[in-house]
Amino acid sequence: MTQQVIQQIYQHCEQLSPYLKAMATAELQANDSHISVNGSNVTTIKSLHHHLQQQAPEAGRSYWLTRSWDLLTWQPLYLAVTAIYQCQALPNLQHMQQRHCDGVVAGFSFSCTACASGSVKQLIQQAGQQLRAMFDHYRVELDQSVRCRPKFTDTLLADTLISRLLLLQQTHPEMPTASLRQHIGWWLEAMSLPLRALDTVHSNCEGKLVLQRSSCCAVYKTQTGSKCANCPRLK
Fold first, then answer.
1. Spatial separation of the C-alpha atoms in residues 127 and 116, rounded to whole Å
2. Cβ–Cβ contacts within 10 Å for residue 122, how many?
3. How many Å apart are CA 66 and CA 222, to the nearest integer?
4. How many Å is the Cα radius of gyration of the chain?
5. Which helix (H) or strand (E) holds 202?
6. Where are the strands (E) in 27-119, listed by range?
7. Residue pLDDT, tens place only, 122-177
């Protein structure tokens, strides 16, 4: 049953994004540098940051830092939300390894595929604790390459988390707006993120919840980039 659940999680992840793809642990470790909460990732994170500098030298420090952080955190966050809302289960994120190759973090594996079960709120609390520990670990390591402070990363995390949760309006259209707001609050609390981030969520003319970002991804600083539709710099 555990294997069936984890395979279902993998399938839903790949449907969400082809880059969010499960790999065999041996394959991941043999071919690429990998990132995990167990042990040091300092060398790999330095390599990630260096590749981003080479790929977009014109973009500057704010882009390289923001992009590094987003790449380090997007897969665990997206996987946790997908697992909980699509399968009402949660793999132990401490056993997750991420694939890094040439400035891209995409693909993951689990050394242990046992999954926790419970109510959605219980699983959110577990996921929040695991994600917080993982991301604190990554931030400290990234800080060794470039100044990376908790307030900055928390703002990015809140925006990424809320953006992912708002996708539930597509996959779970039956969820009332009030319930989705409540769930966003549960996630923010579980991850020790400021609850004021809820103030960035508003209803549009169609009654759908939308996010006015508090953070900027700085992609507009790259040669081919432009400001996002909900970029705070557009105000």
1. 10
2. 13
3. 13
4. 17
5. strand 201-203
6. 33-36, 89-91, 96-101, 104-110, 115-117
7. 999 999 999 999 999 999 999 998 999 999 999 999 999 999 999 999 999 999 99
Sign of CA dihedral 84, 88, 93, 98: negative
The pTM of the full predicted model, rounded to 2 decimals, is: 0.95
Give me the residue label for tokens 């419970």. Answer: 118
- Token pair for 72: 């380090």
Amino acid identity, position 14: E
CA terminus-to-terminus distance, the chain: 50
**What is the residue extent of each domain of the chain?**
2-234
Instruction: Give phi and psi for 204, each to the nearest 5.
Output: -90, -175
- Tokens at 123, concatenated: 């699983």
Render pLDDT for 62-103 as a digit per residue (tens, 0 to 9): 999 999 999 999 999 999 999 999 999 999 999 999 999 999
Q: Which two tokens stand for residue 212?
A: 């006015």
